[in-house]
Write a structure and sequence with these properties.
The complex is a heterodimer of chains A (about 900) and B (about 100). With about 900 residues, chain A is of the alpha+beta class. In chain A, about 50% of the residues lie in helices and about 15% in strands. In chain A, the strands form three sheets. In chain A, strands 3-4-9-6-8-7 form a six-stranded mixed beta barrel. In chain A, helix 6 packs across helix 16. Chain B has a single domain, classed as Orthogonal Bundle (Arc Repressor Mutant, subunit A), CATH 1.10.10. Chain B has four helices and three strands; from the N terminus they run H-E-H-H-E-E-H. Classes of the chains: A alpha+beta (about 900), B alpha+beta (about 100).
C-alpha cells in the first residue's frame, strides 16, 4: 500500500492547521484514498494504475487547499494544548487565552473567590480614595481658566500671620497699582437674618466686589451677577445661591426682582448663581447669598483693620513669580507710605487651587500612598496563591511545552489569567468603592468644600481599569515567568516530586511574604502614629469644659437693635427666661464661640509702658461676652472676678485677660487693677481696668498653642455685638435645644437662631480632619494586617504540606510534637523578622512624610514602633500556629507510606 | 444531497462519495478534494456532526450524522427542490401534452 499520507500532508502543510486537526484530516483522507486504491485493485488495475487513480482524487490541489482553508481557518479549532500553535494571531490567541483562563478560574472557585476578594479590597480602596483625590486635588475648580486664579494675602509673618487678611485701604491700593492682574476682587463673610417669609433664618453669605463673578468667569443661572454700579453703599441687591433658591423659593425664576428682608433691610434679588459655586477662602462655609461689598467711606480708609479675602486673576502670560514680585514692590511702597500700619507687612500670592486644597493635600496623598500599599499586599497574596497553583499545574504546563508551546506564549496565557482576575477584582472593587464613597462622604471634614462632587467619573474609571491591568501584570508576572521555566524532564517523569514547588517556588513565596510583612509594618506604623497623635489631641485641654454645653448663634439685626442698650435689653430677657428652663444650670451671652471663628484680634497698649514700634505689637484675641460666661463655659478664673450686671455702659470700663496675656504684659506682677486699651496709647478708646485673669482657651485653632486673649463686657462695647448663647445643662444638651430656641422666639419672634450645636461636637469638628486621616489609615492598616496574616498562613501551611514527608521522618527519628511546632513557627518568624527589619527601615524613611500630620509625638516615636512590632509578631505567631499545629498531627507511618 | 444521504443513518466520507456516485448513476461525482471540504463546511454550519467510531476488527473511521438543525435545513431544502422540480415539470410537461 502506497503512503498516501505523505502526499496529503504535502497539500495540508501550507494551511498551517492546528496539529491535532491536521492529523484528523490526514487520517480521514488517507483512508478514503486507500479504499479507492483497493477498489481499483479489485477491479483489475495494476498497483501503479490503482495508485494513480487514488491520487486523482486529489487532482485539483489548489481547489482543495483553498476550499479547506476557507472552512478550516474560520472554524476556530481549540487545540488540545493551548499555546502550541505557531502562527501568531494576537486577537485570535487573546480570545483563546481568555476563554481558557475563564475555564481555569471557574474550575477553581475557591481560589478565584479568595483572589477576587483580596483584589476587590485593594482596588476598591484605591478607587474610593482616588475618587476623593480626583474631586479634591485633580479636578479643576469650577471657574473659567482656574489656573490663572490666585489669592492675595498680606504677609505679616512677624506677628504670626504669614497669610493675613488685607485691610480695605491696602486692598484698594493693590487694586489700583497692580499691573499683573486682569482683575482683583475682595470678599468678606457676613451673616444675614432672613425675616418676613416663613421661619426667620440666619444665612451665611458674603459681601463681594461687584467684579468678582466676572473675574471668576461664572455667569448667573437666572438673572444677572453684579455690575459696577451695584458696588456703592446703599445699593441693596442680592444674589442667591442655587440651594437657597431651591429650598426657600422653590426654584421659581420669578424671584428675580423680588424684595427680601435681610438684617431688617430690604434687598432686591438680581440673580441666582449656578449649583456648586462656592467661593474659596479661609473657612469653607457654604455661602447662601452674596451682596455687593460696597465699602463705606469710613471702611475704605481703614488700613489697620484686616478682614478681607482677595481673589485675583493673573493676566495671560504673567507668571506667579512676576505677580509675587510686583505685589512685594507694592507692599514695600505701602509700608513706606503708612509705616504705622504696614511696617514689615509684605504680600503673598497663592494659586487658588493650592489655597483650596493646601491643608488636606498631605493627608490625601498619605492615604493614596497607603491604599497603594494595601493593593501591593493584595497583589503579593494573589501572587502567592498563583505560585502555589503553578506548582499544581506543572504537569499541564510541561505537557504544553513538550507539545511545542513557546514559553513566551505560556507566559502570556498566565498573564491573561491574572489580568482577568484583576478585572473581576476591579469590578467588585468598584462596587465596594461605590459604597465606600458614600461612607467617606459622611465623615470627610466639612471644611473640604468639594465633598459633594466626589463621585466615580470617567477619570476614576480609567484609573481603576489601569490599576486593574497593572495589578494583574504585577501579581501575575512572577508566577508566569516562574511557571513557564520548568525543567521538562524532571516534571514529566512519572512520580517525580514537585521540583519547582520545592526550593525555587518556596523561595519566591517566602520573598512575597517578607514583602507583605514589610509593607504592612510600614502601614501599621503610620496608622499607629496617627492614632497616637490623635489620642494626644483628644487629651489637649481646650481651656473649657465642653460637656453638657449647648451653643447657638443669635445674630441681632443691626436695624432692629442698633445700639448696645437695646441689645442688652434683648439678651437680659433671653438669659433670664432660659435660666428658668428645666435642665438648665446656667446660661450666658457669648461672642464668637471658641473653635468656630477665625479672627477678631487687635493690638493693645498698656498704661505706663511705651508703645512698641508698629511691627512689634502683639495681637490679642478679644471676645465680647456677658456675665456668667466663664462659669457656664467652665473656664477657670485664676484671679480676680467675673463681669457682673453692674459692668455697664456707664460704669468703669473693665477687661478680663488670659494667663498668657498677663504673663506677656506684666511678667512677674499682679495685673489686677492695671489698665490697657485697644490700639495705641494715643488712640481715642478708654483705658480698661483688668479685673480678672482666666485660663487660656484654644479660641481659633485647637491644635496650635493658645494665643493671648482678653474678654470685654458686651454692654460696654459700641460696635462689637455679642452673637451667641451658651447654656450649661444638667441633662443631654440637645434635648432642650428646641425649648431654648422657642424661648428666644418668645422674646422676639423674628430673631434668627442658627448653628444649634453642642460644644462637644464643635471640639470634635475641630479635630475632624485628624480623625478622618486616623480612621482611614487605621482601616487600611487593618486590611493590610489581615491580608498579610493570610499570606503568612498560606505560605506556612503550604510549606507544612510540602514537608509532610520530612516532618514524618523527623518524627519517626524521635522529634517531639513541640519540636515540630517550634520548627514551623520559627520558620514563619524568620520571614516575619526579615520583613519587619525591612519595614522598619522603610518606615523610618517614610514616616517623615506624615510628620506634618502628627501632633505631640515624633515621626519615629519609639513606643509606637515597639507596640506595632509586638502586634505584628503576635499576628504572625497566630497565623503560623494553625498550620504548625497541623504539622504536629502528621502520622510518621502515613507520611512515609504516601511516597 | 449529502444531508439526504445522512438522513437515515451515519456514514463515513468514502461511503457518502460512493452513494452519490451510485445514486446519480455516475452523473455526479465528488472527489476527495471537493467532498471533504464540503463535509467540513457542513459540519461547521452545524448541520452534520462527525465522530470517530471504532468497530471491532476495523480501523476507526469518522462517521457523519445529521444534526437537529441539519434536519430542519434538509426539510426546507426538500420543499424548495420539490417546488423547483414541479415548476420545471410544468414547463416541460406542456411540451409533452
Amino acid at each position: 500500500m502506497p503512503d498516501f499520507k505523505a502526499e496529503i500532508r504535502r497539500h495540508l502543510s501550507e494551511l498551517g492547521l492546528p496539529p491535532i486537526r491536521e492529523a484528523e484530516i490526514l487520517e480521514e483522507l488517507s483512508q478514503h484514498l486507500e479504499q479507492e486504491y483497493d477498489r481499483a485493485l479489485s477491479g483489475g488495475a495494476s498497483e501503479e494504475e490503482a495508485r494513480r487513480r487514488a491520487l486523482e482524487e486529489l487532482n485539483t490541489p489548489d481547489l482543495f487547499r483553498s476550499q479547506l482553508s476557507d472552512v478550516e481557518h474560520r472554524v476556530s479549532q481549540e487545540p488540545i494544548a493551548s499555546g502550541t500553535r505557531e502562527k501568531i494571531n494576537i486577537f485570535a490567541d487573546l480570545g483563546q487565552d481568555v476563554r481558557y483562563a475563564l475555564r481555569m478560574l471557574v474550575k477553581n472557585p475557591a481560589f478565584t473567590a479568595v483572589a477576587v476578594i483580596a483584589l476587590a479590597l485593594g482596588i476598591g480602596a484605591n478607587t474610593a480614595i482616588f475618587s476623593v483625590v480626583n474631586a479634591v486635588l485633580l479636578r479643576p475648580l469650577p471657574f473659567k481658566n482656574p489656573g490663572q486664579l490666585v489669592m492675595v494675602w498680606e504677609n505679616a509673618a512677624h506677628v504670626g500671620f504669614p497669610k493675613d487678611t488685607p485691610s480695605p485701604a491696602n486692598f484698594l491700593d493693590w487694586q489700583k497699582q497692580a499691573q499683573s492682574f486682569s482683575g482683583m476682587a475682595a470678599t468678606v463673610e457676613r451673616s444675614f437674618n432672613l425675616t418676613g417669609v416663613g421661619e426667620p433664618e440666619r444665612l451665611e453669605g458674603r459681601r463681594v466686589s461687584a467684579n468678582l463673578f466676572d473675574l471668576l468667569g461664572v455667569p448667573a443661572l437666572v438673572g444677572r451677577t453684579f455690575v459696577t454700579d451695584d458696588d456703592r453703599p446703599g445699593t441693596h441687591v442680592v444674589l442667591l445661591s442655587y440651594s437657597l433658591w431651591q429650598r426657600r423659593f422653590g426654584s421659581d425664576p420669578g424671584v428675580i426682582g423680588q424684595a427680601l428682608t435681610l438684617n431688617g433691610e430690604s434687598y432686591t434679588v438680581v440673580g441666582v448663581m449656578p449649583r456648586l459655586v462656592q467661593l474659596p477662602g479661609y473657612s469653607s462655609r457654604h455661602d447662601q447669598l452674596w451682596v455687593p461689598i460696597a465699602f463705606s467711606q469710613e471702611e475704605a480708609s481703614q488700613r489697620g483693620n484686616h478682614f478681607l479675602e482677595v481673589i485675583a486673576r493673573l493676566k495671560p502670560g504673567i507668571t506667579l513669580k512676576q505677580a509675587q514680585a510686583e505685589m512685594e514692590t507694592i507692599a514695600a511702597r505701602l509700608a513706606r507710605a503708612y509705616p504705622v500700619y504696614n511696617m514689615r507687612r509684605g504680600a503673598v500670592v497663592v494659586p487658588l487651587h493650592e489655597q483650596v486644597v493646601g491643608d488636606i493635600k498631605p493627608a490625601l496623598l498619605v492615604l493614596l500612598g497607603s491604599v497603594g500599599f494595601v493593593l501591593l499586599i493584595a497583589c503579593a497574596n494573589v501572587a502567592n496563591l498563583l505560585l502555589a497553583r503553578a506548582a499544581v499545574r506543572q504537569k499541564e504546563i510541561a505537557l504544553r511545552l513538550a507539545i511545542g508551546a513557546s514559553r513566551a506564549r505560556l507566559t502570556r496565557q498566565f498573564l491573561t489569567e491574572s489580568v482577568l482576575l484583576a478585572i473581576f477584582g476591579a469590578g467588585f472593587g468598584l462596587l465596594l468603592a461605590f459604597v465606600g464613597i458614600r461612607v467617606l462622604r459622611t465623615f470627610i471634614p466639612s471644611t473640604i468644600s468639594q465633598v459633594q462632587t466626589i463621585n466615580i467619573d470617567g477619570t476614576v474609571l480609567i484609573f481603576t481599569v489601569l490599576v486593574a491591568v497593572l495589578t494583574g501584570i504585577a501579581f501575575g508576572l512572577a508566577p508566569a515567568i516562574h511557571g513557564s521555566h520548568l525543567n521538562l524532564n524532571d516534571t514529566l517523569k512519572e512520580g517525580s516530586r514537585d521540583s519547582t514547588g520545592g526550593i525555587k517556588g518556596h523561595r519566591a513565596r517566602a520573598l512575597l511574604v517578607i514583602g507583605e510583612v514589610a509593607i504592612s509594618f510600614v502601614l501599621l506604623i503610620a496608622a499607629g502614629l496617627l492614632i497616637n497623635s490623635f489620642l494626644h489631641l483628644r487629651k489637649l485641654d481646650p481651656g473649657f469644659r465642653p460637656d453638657h454645653l449647648l451653643t447657638m448663634k443669635v445674630d441681632l439685626s443691626e436695624v432692629k437693635y442698633p445700639d448696645r442698650e437695646r441689645r442688652a435689653v434683648f439678651f437680659d430677657e433671653v438669659i433670664r427666661r432660659v435660666r428658668t428652663l428645666p435642665g438648665v444650670q446656667s446660661a450666658a451671652v457669648a461672642g464668637n464661640l471658641p473653635l468656630t471663628y477665625n479672627g477678631d484680634s487687635m493690638n493693645i497698649s498698656v498704661e505706663g509702658l511705651p508703645d512698641p514700634p508698629p511691627d512689634q505689637r502683639s495681637d490679642v484675641i478679644y471676645r465680647a461676652i456677658g456675665p456668667g460666661y466663664f462659669s457656664t463655659m467652665g473656664i477657670a478664673i485664676v484671679r480676680g472676678r467675673d463681669f457682673t450686671d453692674e459692668d455697664k455702659a456707664d460704669s468703669r470700663d473693665v477687661v478680663i485677660i488670659s494667663e498668657k496675656t498677663a504673663q506677656h504684659f506684666w511678667p512677674g506682677q499682679d495685673p489686677i487693677g492695671k489698665r490697657l486699651k485697644p490700639g495705641s496709647s494715643t488712640s481715642n478708646g478708654p483705658w480698661r481696668e483688668v479685673i480678672g485673669i482666666v485660663k487660656d482657651v484654644r479660641q481659633n485653632d485647637f491644635i496650635a498653642p493658645p494665643k493671648m486673649e482678653m474678654y470685654l463686657s458686651y454692654r460696654q462695647l459700641k460696635n462689637i455685638p455679642a452673637n451667641a448663647l451658651v447654656v450649661r445643662t444638667s441633662i443631654e444638651p440637645t434635648s432642650i435645644a428646641r425649648s431654648v430656641r422657642d424661648t428666644i422666639w418668645s422674646v422676639d419672634k423674628n430673631q434668627s437662631v442658627a448653628d444649634i450645636d453642642t460644644m462637644e461636637h464643635i471640639v470634635a469638628q475641630a479635630v475632624a480632619r485628624q480623625r478622618f486621616s486616623m480612621l482611614l489609615l487605621g482601616f487600611f492598616a487593618a486590611i493590610a494586617l489581615l491580608l498579610a496574616s493570610i499570606g503568612i498562613y498560606g505560605v506556612i501551611s503550604y510549606s507544612v504540606a510540602q514537608r509532610t514527608r520530612e516532618i514524618g521522618i523527623r518524627m519517626a527519628l524521635g522529634a517531639r510534637r513541640a519540636d515540630v511546632l517550634k520548627m514551623t513557627i520559627k520558620e514563619a518568624l524568620k520571614l516575619v523578622g526579615i520583613g519587619m527589619m525591612i519595614g522598619l527601615v522603610v518606615a523610618l524613611l517614610l514616616t517623615r512624610v506624615i510628620a506634618t500630620l502628627l501632633y505631640g509625638i515624633s515621626a519615629s516615636d519609639p513606643s509606637t514602633f515597639v507596640a506595632i512590632s509586638l502586634v505584628l509578631l503576635i499576628v504572625a505567631i497566630v497565623a503560623s500556629y494553625l498550620p504548625a499545629l497541623r504539622a504536629t498531627k502528621v502520622d510518621p507511618v502515613v507520611a512515609l507510606r504516601a511516597q | 444531497m449529502i444531508l439526504a444521504l445522512l438522513e437515515d443513518r451515519a456514514r463515513h466520507g468514502y461511503e457518502i462519495g460512493q452513494l452519490i456516485d451510485l445514486r446519480s448513476r455516475g452523473a455526479i461525482r465528488f472527489n476527495v478534494a471537493s467532498l471533504y471540504p464540503l463535509l467540513y463546511r457542513l459540519e461547521k454550519r452545524n448541520w452534520i456532526k462527525g465522530r470517530w467510531i471504532e468497530k471491532p476488527g476495523q480501523r476507526r473511521r469518522r462517521y457523519y450524522r445529521l444534526t437537529a438543525s441539519g434536519k430542519k435545513v434538509l426539510l426546507k431544502q426538500r420543499a424548495g427542490w420539490r417546488e423547483f422540480v414541479e415548476a420545471i415539470n410544468l414547463i416541460t410537461g406542456i411540451q409533452h401534452a
